[in-house]
Design a protein that fits this description.
The protein is α+β, with helices and mostly antiparallel strands and 268 residues long. It has one domain: Clam (outer membrane lipoprotein receptor (LolB), chain A). It contains four helices and 13 strands. A 13-stranded antiparallel beta sheet has the order 6-5-4-3-2-1-13-12-11-10-9-8-7, sandwiched between helices. It is globular and about 50 Å long.
Length: 268
């Protein structure tokens, strides 16, 4: 009940009275031109200018939760920047996560061993759905007026010189408390290799179902890029939670632009 009440409260804050307000940018912040240029150059480095509509990555997965380590297979699918599905088939059973941003507000669910779906709170659904595939990340949505890009600067990360970009959602026309909350829970940081401009990491925060204000750090690391049909694909993807490795995926096969159906990403 507590989670339902909190979720309804967030929906009240996050859904505007009229959809026209969502895209109003009057007196709102604007993106940094340098950040937009780097995001565009990164996508060109990733795709070579080719259009990418969807992707399926299949491979091996290791799932870690405390002292529990499981291995199995992974199938990761994404369509555009707003639909994704992750299926892990592990030694203890299956785990599925689905994200879909097509409705009035972004949604996400988890399904364990084919059981009932467990809905995500809205405050955990504002991050890019296609988090595991940089070519379909928010870097590929620089023209979206509700996304605000900032250039943080040049840094060294893991011994590699990187360009640090930050992105967040700005829902113009909403109440100040809603704008502030949306910015906090939608902020993501991208780290681009300064030489190749390929993303090496993405970081953001997740939160408990009934607490949007306590941050839990998530990090996605990308490595072992290989070119597939002209597109740079990371063949090693790692998810870290609060600095500890939680999911380790080694990609074996890649399918691009296969025409994935929207039904794959429907929320149960």
């Amino acid at each position: 009940m507590r989670t339902r009440v909190f979720t309804r409260f967030l929906l009240f804050l996050l859904i505007p009275a009229s959809s026209q307000f969502l895209f109003s940018q009057k007196q709102g912040p604007v993106s940094d031109p340098q950040a937009l240029a780097l995001a565009t150059q990164s996508i060109i480095a990733l795709t070579g200018g080719a259009a990418v509509s969807d992707v399926t990555l299949s491979g091996n997965a290791t799932w870690i939760a405390g002292s529990d380590t499981e291995t199995g297979s992974a199938n990761l699918q994404a369509k555009g920047t707003g639909e994704s599905r992750v299926d892990l088939n592990l030694s203890s059973g299956t785990r599925t996560e689905i994200r879909n941003d097509a409705g009035s507000y972004p949604q996400g669910v988890s399904v364990i061993n084919g059981g009932d779906s467990q809905a995500w709170p809205v405050h955990n659904c504002w991050i890019n759905a296609s988090w595991f595939f940089p070519a379909l990340s928010f870097l590929n949505a620089a023209a979206d007026p509700t996304l605000i890009f900032s250039y943080i600067g040049e840094e060294v990360r893991g011994g590699v010189k990187v360009e640090h970009l930050q992105v967040y959602r700005y829902p113009a026309g909403q109440k100040p408390v809603s704008i502030s909350l949306t910015q906090r829970v939608s902020t993501a940081d991208y780290y681009l290799d300064s030489s190749s401009l390929l993303p090496v990491a993405m970081t953001f925060n997740t939160h408990a179902d009934d607490d949007a204000f306590t941050n839990i750090a998530l990090e996605i690391d990308f490595s072992m890029y290989q070119r597939v049909n002209g597109v740079q694909v990371p063949f090693h993807i790692q998810k870290l939670i609060s600095g500890g490795l939680a999911v380790d995926i080694t990609v074996q096969t890649v399918a691009l632009n296969s025409g994935l159906s929207d039904s794959l990403f429907s929320i149960p």
